[in-house]
Amino acid sequence: MDNYNISERNRVKRIPKRGQYDKKTVYEILDAGFLCHVGFAIEGQPYVIPTAYGRIADTIYIHGASTSRMLLHLQQQHVPACLTVTHLDGIVAARSTFHSSMNYRSVVIFGEASLIEGEEKMEALAIITNQILKGRWEEARLPNQTEMKATSVLKIEIEEASAKVRTGEPKDDEEDYVLPVWAGVIPVYQTFGKPIADSKLFPNVDMNESIKIFL
Amino acid sequence: MDNYNISERNRVKRIPKRGQYDKKTVYEILDAGFLCHVGFAIEGQPYVIPTAYGRIADTIYIHGASTSRMLLHLQQQHVPACLTVTHLDGIVAARSTFHSSMNYRSVVIFGEASLIEGEEKMEALAIITNQILKGRWEEARLPNQTEMKATSVLKIEIEEASAKVRTGEPKDDEEDYVLPVWAGVIPVYQTFGKPIADSKLFPNVDMNESIKIFL
Description:
2 copies of one chain form a homodimer. Chain A is 19% helix and 38% strand. By secondary structure, chain A is α+β, with helices and mostly antiparallel strands. Chain A has a single domain, classed as Pnp Oxidase, Chain A (Roll), CATH 2.30.110.10. The first copy, chain A, is globular and about 65 Å long. Chain A starts with 18 loop residues before the first strand and ends with a helix. The interface between A and B is large, with 93 and 93 residues.
């Protein structure tokens, strides 16, 4: 009941033991980021576009200009979408090139998108904004009517999802452990620098709480 | 001549001034990474899969298990692919949520993939391996016949590409500069930790040059 259904679409075929279908794992990976890659196909031509997202329960929100090709396409009925989030955690240097790999956490989501309006649209924008900077929605100037009109927000209800995770050391062939080749992991992190104030910032403006956590 | 052709497919429609079509910019963004998101569509269903890549001139190489659904699909003739590389460089906190944004460098590539074999296949694996860890191909055990058979390598000749880049400060509406909201940029980096030796590493094995640069 706390797992996504497994179909031919979301089943992890390559190295199935890395595949996970429980919502807890999927949510954790989604909540650790705010940048996804959205896939859609127009007349057979696939497009993959990076964009921000927000999540609440099994709903993913994305937004952009109302004139965006991606949003205009995806808001049509019965248009399948794919949304992928990837965190790179390490370069896995094995003794052989064949067993060299990466450590990562990724989620692939399938679902259809629909345009949302009114109160739900405003709530969705708050979720996206706060997924990037926690609490920012409560600090910044909120969108006015003109801005709301210029913005489209889509929700994607997760129909199917899978997570794929690799952690840990290289796994070499038994006979390769004697080779004089260094093996191990180079950790990879996404790190944040100290906030850099806008050059036009008025001197009496304090840093907001959503920003202070980066100090 | 050093630019990609611009078509309806690769033209940057949203905020066109962020769009760039020169090969130099596209190559720089591609060469700054080794992880891409590949998009393909099977019977209208889009898939977006993270994978490693290598680049030389206008050719991108990807690889994986010969049984991979993605590789089996893309190696067919006349199957359009999309390959996207994104580097997140900053969170842009504007005074308004509407003008809040991200700094990033991204490239979207369109082309068709084809399976490669023989010497070219080995060269392509060297390019992918060395894109991740410079010089690793010259250090590690190279693939044997069984491993080569288990691996497929595809090349994608870039037909069309575009880069999209945002840098710098937030751009707020004139009247918002007086608001008591902090504005600026939180830089985002991909950073590498110190290499962690495999617990089974023989004590007399020196660190290879491809790994030492992370010290």
